[in-house]
Amino acid sequence: MRATHLSGWGRYPIRECRVATLRREEQLADWSQTKTLIARGNGRSYGDAALNPELTLSMLARDRLLAFDSSRGVLSCEAGVLLADLLRVYAPQGWFPPVVPGTADVTVGGMIAADVHGKNHHRDGSFGAHVESFRLAGGNGDVLTCSREENLDLFRATLGGMGLTGVVLSACFRMCRIESEHVRTETLGTPDLDATMETLAASNDWRYSVAWLDGSAEGGNLGRGLVSRGDFATRDDLSGQSSAYRSRAPVSRQLPTPALLSGALNPASVRLFDALYNRVGRFRKGPRLVHHTSFFFPLDRLQRWNRLYGRRGFVQYQCVLPVSQSSRGLRAILERVATSDHIAYLAVLKLLGPQGEGMLSFPLSGYTLALDFPMRPGTLELLDSLDEITTAHGGRVYLAKDARCRPDHVQESYADLPSFVDVRQGATSGTREFSSVMSRRLGL
Amino acid sequence: MSRSSRRNPGTALVVGATGDIGRAIARRLGRDGWELQLAARDPSQLKAEAQDLHLRGISVSAHECDVLKEDGGVSLIDALPATPDVAVCTVGVLGDQSDAETDWRAAERVMRTNYLGPALLMGALANRFEQRGHGTLVGISSIAGERGRRSNYAYGSAKSGFTSFLSGLRSRLWRSGVHVVTVKPGYVRTRMTDHLELPALLTAEPEDVAEAIARAIRKRRDVVFVGRLWRPVAFVVRAMPESIFKRISL
Asked: What is the CATH number of the domain that holds B21?
């Protein structure tokens, strides 16, 4: 065990944590003296969810594939397996994970703990909907299998439970069939927020859809952007294309983020980028065929791009508002940001489907907006004011992105929180509890 | 990874295949198209590792063996379905220097695990490879073997011995077409070093070691370090006069 400075992907906050790596399940007993701990995957949650100064337990060494039932497409693997690893092994065989978030550098355990959603949430729900079962180590060291048949409460509390119910050791989930490794995609330019929302709603027949919002837009153009939607290409789609698409795609190498570029993002460079990206996006409408990695994980090409925000780091504000409230609420949020002296460096909008099974799962039927802000004086106050708008419109923030939300907001907006608290207390009544900087901040 | 490297380059034996470095090497070579033979002591872990590689589409066989207990590796080699083209030995243990100073059994364990076991195994494999006229032996030694330091000379001396053994073996075999690679990692983030605070700039991941080994096999390198800084560090450590070196708390 060693002490080290840890943070989430946003590099805010940073805490000194004692870190240990779980290599064998029996090792869990080694830390029986430790009163509190949290499991950590690949550190891609943005804020303080995977930090615990007493003990942060790295799951990255638990990364074995355990079994694959190719008749049903059910994969069983350890919790530390990286999504990128799964894609490398299974996409060429015609299998794809049912749900992928915006980066492939997440672990399976992390995808369960955050109950991640993807560009197909409106069609396929969150990752948890495809999980058949998982094994969970609780507070007294017992390992329980949780599924819809066994320990259902614990199953529901753990999906989206941010690691607070125990350590997910391994999981079983369904993969889906793909006919090619490419995505047939098109991009539509939209003039304002209403048009962007309508275009997303009209894209429901597409399996994947998401909108990028132009941060350089002002006034009546607020919420202007590019809606990109796609489906996995079928064999027929590919047959007319050049042979390059039929062969294994040349996955481009990842580029490191040069240290020199640390902090390279600033309001001027971001506005310039947004304006250019908007023009270029409108120009190449599609439909086009792109490899799945560039469709789903465009930012993964730049390793550690979080450094672009400089030493103070950044926070992402991601909220969801019910459909009926979305138009007014989103406009209020974008206007609140526009009238502040902060700008969002990245803005993404997506229409989510109905709420899933997880007690603390984020998605609900409505539009979700994600905004990246560099940390600087006044950022936290701005986000507090956004919380007020979100709450007033019946929405909530995504814990996997959160680093700063106040307890009352979370308690108000997550209706199943009382059941979650009950299940968690029951499950971790043993010698130690699972908690994080986040859970203490939120009074969970 | 270039596409050509996915063609089957041959069979590789990884001894100590359930350790962090052994696992990383197995995955790396497997991805490059090598057929794998895994050898390790713990049967359940060995089975899990083989199953993982199998699911990744890699041909793999598993062989339970304890390099320290048996007959210098001969029974392991006899049990293999075929003599491998490449053999990588990752066997080693750091141990605790102060234990090694007060308890001869602790010292013996460090010496056996880092020198006697690996050297005898490499020697036995070398004879098979020599008869056949080709093959690559890869021994994982350590930067700690460059010179005995007060903080870990039990471990360091065993690694020195292994480094010397490999260098002699290389010289003996080079005309026969058999190649010997000595890998000298510095700090690597593994179970062995979990309890240590390691300097970030000098610390490699097991995957870096695997990458260095894959390259060394391809390019028939003799001695490789892992990370650019270690070669100059090793040079300085070796070059320092003993009268100064003995005073330095390293």
From this structure: 3.40.50.720
Asked if pLDDT for residue A258 goes beyond 80, the answer is: no
By the 8 A CB rule, do A207 and A198 touch? no
Q: Which residue has the higher pLDDT, A266 or A397?
A: A397
A390/A367 Cα distance (integer angstroms): 12
Across B147-156, average pLDDT: 95
Note whether B200 contacts A: Cβ–Cβ < 8 A: no
Tell me how far apart the alpha carbons of residues A403 and A46 are, in angstroms, rounded to a whole number: 7
Contact B197 A68 (CB under 8 A): no
- Tell me the per-residue pLDDT of B216-230, one tens digit each, with 9 for 90 and over: 999 999 999 998 899
User: From the CA of B32, how many Å to the nearest CA of chain A?
Assistant: 13
Domain membership flag for residue A244:
yes
Retrieve residue B83's tokens: 């003599």
Strand spans (E) along A175-256: 176-177, 182-190, 208-213, 225-232, 255-256
What range does the domain containing A221 cover? 182-404
Segment holding B214, helix H or strand E: helix B206-219
The answer to whether residue A304 scores a pLDDT higher than 70 is yes
pLDDT in tens, B93-115: 999 999 999 999 999 999 999 99
pLDDT at A260 over 70: no
Sheet holding A167-174, edge to edge: A65-69, A74-78, A167-174, A131-137, A143-147
C-alpha to C-alpha distances, A192 to A219, A224, A253, A332, nearest whole angstrom: 9, 4, 36, 14
Q: How many structural domains are present in chain B? A: 1
From the CB of residue B171, how many other CB atoms can be counted at a distance below 10 Å?
Answer: 11
Please give the sequence-ordered ranges of beta strands (E in DSSP) within A314-420, or none if there are none.
314-322, 346-352, 366-374, 396-397
Sorted by sequence, the CB contacts under 8 Å of residue B151 that are 6+ apart come out as: B97, B249, B250
Q: Is residue B250 part of a domain?
A: no
A232 vs A252: CA distance, rounded Å: 20
Q: What is the CATH number of the domain that holds A189?
A: 3.40.462
Residue B232 resides in a domain: yes
Q: Which residues in chain A have their CB less than 8 angstroms from residue B56's CB? A: 65, 89
Is residue A248's pLDDT more than 60?
no
Residues of A with CB under 8 A from a CB of B: 1-4, 20-21, 23-24, 61, 64-68, 89, 93, 248
Q: Which residues pair with A173 in a beta bridge?
A: A75, A131
Residue B64 has pLDDT above 50, yes or no: yes
pLDDT tens for B169-219 read 999 999 999 999 999 999 999 988 888 888 888 899 999 999 999 999 999
Task: Locate the DSSP E strands across A65-160.
Answer: 65-69, 74-78, 95-96, 131-137, 143-147
Catalytic site includes residue B155:
yes
Counting the structural domains of chain A, the total is: 1
Q: Would residue A51 count as lying in a domain?
A: no
Quote the pLDDT of residue A285. 64
Query: How much is the pLDDT for A253?
Result: 56
Q: CA of A249, closest CA in chain B: separation in Å?
A: 11
Q: How confident is the model at residue A239 (pLDDT cuts 50, 70, 90)?
A: confident
Q: Is residue B20 part of a domain?
A: yes
The mean pLDDT value of chain A amounts to 92
CA–CA min distance A340, chain B (Å): 39
Q: Do A64 and B191 touch (CB under 8 A)?
A: no
Average pLDDT for B134-143: 97
Enclosing domain of residue B55:
3-245
Asked if the model's pLDDT at residue A429 lies above 70, the reply is no
- Is there a contact between A130 and A98 (Cβ–Cβ < 8 Å)? yes
Give the list of residues 6+ apart from residue A327 with CB closer than 8 angstroms, or none: A193, A194, A197
